[in-house]
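agent> fetching stored inputs for the adenosine-5-diphosphoribose docking request
agent> found them:
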Amino acid sequence: MARKKIALIGGGQIGGVLAQLCALRELGDVVLFDIVEGLPQGKMLDIAEAAPVDGYDVCLKGTNSYEDIAGSDVVIVTAGLPRKPGMSRDDLIEVNSKIMTSVAEGIKANAPNAFVIVISNPLDAMVTLCQKVTGFPYNRVIGQAGVLDSARFKAFIAWELGVSVKDVNAMTLGGHGDDMVPLVRYASVNGIPVMELLENKYKSKEKAQEVMAAMVKRTRGAGGEVVALLKTGSAFYSPASSAIAMAESILKDSKRVLPTCAFLQGEFGVSGYYVGVPCVLGAGGVEKILEFKLDAEEQAMMDKSVAAVKELVGSMK
Ligand code: APR
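agent> prediction call returned; pasting tokens
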């Protein structure tokens, strides 16, 4: 049986980590594409030369030619500029729209059957554009944001409660911006509500709410926190890990339930927009959107986040 094939469009910070993670997990053969000559070739040679140490048997190729992505099962897109300190993700829309248009054309022409996972920012707009240009069905074009936003939320909860990250369950919905919706009501440690554990820890309901509000705020601004520290770019390890979780669920048909930027057609009261919601990801891409009832406060936050997504998408020329 032929090995799976993964194409990575954009060989920068995230692209390099994606390639290494694909190799370490032996997800399949990997092609790394970039417009900069030598960059993807150099990174893939470097990763290939670590294979005897780490013990992965996959083919790794760096390229400047779209023809090399032919036959890819999954394409992950990171092409585009990252943020600099003081910038919002939305500030990238003009330059990254042009890049995304050319990338989507390359994917459409060379890997017409692939599942596409977009990471480039501003995410909700870039995934919308990618689907429009490729014309691929909605279940095959998705965006990575929620897995990372949720991972950040989970990390903060684990650190606060002094428990393993493995036992924390939490999720964010909505757009990949400052209005994202971390779901406090469903945050748990092995099913035990996080709010209850915080109240036990602080012996005060008010203090527990204060601590949770701070974690929600930090989650919303977590990307910017990394940008401010790095000064020269944005987060790259965690976005790569998050997209790999999505790709792996599709490639292995695991049917994991992952918060995914998916096209909504009435779910959560939204029609015709890409928004972050829990999805079953399997061999069919988005196989199901898991809808559930939001309470009034959550719905209000979701509406605000969706309004921001609509404004962003509407601002694309
Ligand atoms: N086609 C392919 N690759 C391109 C193109 C293009 N038209 N234009 C730029 N690139 C490449 C750059 O050459 C660079 O190697 O995209 C890569 C982007 O890499 P970085 O600048 O290191 O950015 P990175 O940190 O990987 O983030 C990429 O993901 O999370 C988002 O906001 C982030 O939009 C940014 C994207």
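agent> quick read of the result: The radius of gyration is 19 Å.
agent> awaiting further instructions
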